[in-house]
Every structure is written in structure tokens, then in C-alpha cells.
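dumping this here before i forget
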Amino acid sequence: MQTHEQKMAEAAFGCVEKRKKETDKFDEYCSFSSSFPTLIHSCGLAQALSFAKAKEKDNYIEDLKVVLEAEDIIERSREAGVMEYIRISRRAISAASWIKRYAQA
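structure:
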């Protein structure tokens, strides 16, 4: 039986490895992934996702969706009530931190 953190770590490892093999902009991906957890913490999840979308970081958003197992993360972050928004944000920070760790490694 795996914990949520173990599932996120496994998914993040797979996503980062896939990006490393298929993209020539892996350094840019690593740079963005290292700042994204802080961005969520300082600006909020909805704003951080909007920023990523505006900067055309679709690869990163897709990886975050895979790690969170939530295809509708952008919509949910905009429409959620306060308590759900906090819960989603905490999970997103955790998922983004796993992506950051593997991208730096």
C-alpha cells in the first residue's frame, strides 16, 4: 500500500524522466519547476497556474496534472470553496515539490 506522497513521488519521477528525454528545453523546465512551489505559496494556486499558462508552460502543467491525478486542476482551483482551495493548494505544493526535487536531481 502506497501513501499519497509515494504515489506523487513515483509519478513525478516518471514525468521528469520523460521530459528529460523528449525535450531540448529541459534546463528551462528545471528552472520553472524550481520556482513553482514558491509561486503557489506566495501568489496562490489559481494565480500560479494562470501565470504558467500565460508563459506557455503547458508541459509543466500537464506534469502537475499527472502527479496530482487531477485533470481539472485549473478549473477546480478557480471554482473551489475556501477549504477545498486550501486543500488543493497544499497538495499542489507537495506535487510541485516532488517535480522540483527530481528536476534538480
